[in-house]
Amino acid sequence: MAIKRGEIYFVDLNPAKGRETAGANPRPVLVLSINAINSLPLVITVVIGTKGENIAKDYPTNVRVLPSDSGLPKETVFLCFQIRSLDPSRFSAKPVGKLSGKILEEIENKVRYCLGL
User: Fold this and answer.
1) pLDDT for res 23
2) Residue 82, helix vs strand vs coil
3) Strand locations in the chain, DSSP E?
């Protein structure tokens, strides 16, 4: 399976520790790593999302995305401070959505902000 930058998948993030994001159900993740890395037997770097209803306030570290822009069934907030590198075996299904253009660029900028880049 070819995992591509900008694609959104539902992934089981368990086990997690402390303040790491996990959950009882698979979570939406947005692939941020470049395709040249995604095609190698390495890890896939993602930003984790959560249901929009879980985040009442818009923080400078988050990007709220509508279903019409993502292909996801519900409004999703991507938590740009929750970046993880995952083994490709966690991606067992086809992508459920895709982001490109201005929304992907906004997430990239928020990740840079969170990392001080």
Assistant:
1) 67
2) strand
3) 7-11, 27-31, 44-51, 62-65, 76-86, 97-98
